[in-house]
Design goal:
With 149 residues, the protein is mostly beta strands. Helix content is 0%, strand content 58%.
């Protein structure tokens, strides 16, 4: 889930708690257009509630995302900060790799993305097989990682 970010509110323990997207800066119509409320389990975001509103409507829930993780170090941990260029993706804030991302839609239907990882002897990901039913081109994707010494 990659989303535009304007502001992030943090908890006392330093973990992100809520992400905001603001519309119409510096006008009389300035408003919060989207929020993403984050629920943590340990060092992983396990649930995100996305809310949306417009000029006349209050915020309402559009999607709920539920995440399941493995116990291995996050695949992008070494360059996490480079991936946060004005956007928000729950995966990049987590300590472990997502194995399942479930999107519960406003109409009650559910879409699921799954991820299978192959690890090398140093416990780093060699390959990631992804199956997308939302947020990416639908279908299967294979990503191969190479590490320099």
């Amino acid at each position: 889930m990659w989303r535009q970010v304007d502001s992030i509110r943090y908890r006392a323990d330093g973990k992100a708690e809520k992400v905001f997207r603001i519309r119409d800066y510096n006008t009389v119509n300035t408003r919060i257009a989207n929020t993403y409320s984050l629920e943590w389990t340990g060092n992983n975001i396990t649930r995100v509630v996305e809310e949306y509103g417009d000029k006349t409507d209050p915020l309402y829930t559009v999607y709920v995302y539920n995440y399941t993780f493995d116990d291995k170090p996050h695949i992008y941990a070494d360059f996490q900060a480079m991936l946060l260029d004005g956007g928000f993706n729950a995966e990049y804030f987590c300590a472990n790799n997502i194995t399942k991302a479930e999107q519960v839609n406003g109409n009650g239907s559910t879409d699921v993305n799954t991820f299978i990882y192959e690890y090398n002897s140093k416990n780093k990901v060699n390959k990631m097989k992804s199956y997308y039913s939302f947020d990416q081109p639908l279908g299967e994707k294979l990503t191969t990682f190479e590490y320099r010494k």
